[in-house]
Amino acid sequence: MAPITPPPQADFAGDETTTSSHVRWIRNKVTQLLAEVRPRAVGLVDAFNFSDHFLGSCLGRFDGHVYEALWQAVQHNPLNGNWSARL
């Protein structure tokens, strides 16, 4: 099965100056930078003060009702069919 998103090196496929060692360096650098950002990620996102409704998110809720909201979203998602008829 093909990946949904192209691998990172695909961004550089048309650039004949990019070598596999460049791609490895970039991948390592991205991993390093993500490790630095990760501990601050929640604070950075919360700083924008987007509401759960605006984000369309069931996770990371301010009210703490993650599982209830996730179950409700699953039940109302048309891709899941008619759950209420099955329960």
Summarize the structure.
This protein has 87 residues and is mainly α. The chain contains 5 helices and no strands.
Structure overview:
- Residues 1-5 have low confidence and may be disordered.
- This protein has 87 residues and is an all-alpha fold.
- It is 51% helix and 0% strand.
- 0% of the residues are buried.
Task: State the low-pLDDT regions, or none.
Answer: 1-5
Query: What is the averaged pLDDT score?
Result: 77
Q: Main sheet? A: none
Order of secondary-structure elements: HHHHH
Q: Helicity level, as a percent range?
A: 40-55%
Q: Tally of extended strands? A: 0
Shape: elongated
Supply Rg: 20 Å
Structural class: mainly alpha
- Number of helix segments? 5
Percent of residues in beta strands?
A: under 5%
The termini sit apart by 33 Å
Topology diagram in text:
Elements: H1 20-37, H2 41-47, H3 52-55, H4 66-76, H5 83-86
Structural features:
single chain; about 90 residues
